[in-house]
Amino acid sequence: HWNNIRRNLIRVGQRITVYVPENKKSYYADVNSLSFEEKQRRIGKSVTSKTSSKSSSEKDKVDSNYIYYTVKRGDNLWTIAQKYQGVSHYDLKSLNGISDHKSLSPGQKIKIKKKS
Predict the structure, then answer these.
(1) Is 69:109 a contact under the CB 8 Å cutoff?
(2) Phi–psi pair at 67, nearest 5 degrees
(3) Pair 93, 77: CB distance under 8 Å
(4) Alpha-carbon distance 9 to 76, whole Å?
(5) Among 5, 24, 46, 75, which is 20 to 30 Å from 114 by CA?
(6) pLDDT tens figures, 64-77
(7) Residue 31 and residue 94: Cα distance in Å, rounded?
(8) In whole angstroms, what is the distance from residue 106 CA to residue 3 CA?
(9) What 3-state DSSP class applies to 34?
């Protein structure tokens, strides 16, 4: 029980330990250094970016009264909120009008909080 996992439940963003045989160590070290797109190409899959229903100018509007964060691959509202004291993922959903947490996309700017 390396990872203290109960049942078959793991959470997004959770780090887990995986056993790798000694003779495969360098192979997986190489794989871990690749981007998502590079990994997909390596196995013969193409990566298409999701298109948002909002226009890019609408999505990227900024208000100088707020602090913004640019979403990175693998981010979710909870992990983003953890970077800012006093901010919850519920705050981010409300402030940004997000109803589906899966709607975040890399490069998207989201409001974090009002500037002090």
Answers:
(1) yes
(2) -95, 135
(3) yes
(4) 18
(5) 75
(6) 888 999 998 889 99
(7) 37
(8) 29
(9) coil
Polymer length of the chain: 116
**This prediction's pTM:** 0.47
Buried b (16+ CB within 10 A) or exposed e, 31-49: eeeeeeeeeeeeeeeeeee
| Residues near 63 by beta carbon (within 8 Å), at least 6 away in sequence | 111
Interatomic CA distance for residues 41 and 43, integer angstroms: 5
> Of the candidates 110, 79, 71, which has an alpha carbon nearest to the alpha carbon of residue 12?
79
* E strands present in the chain: 66-70, 109-114
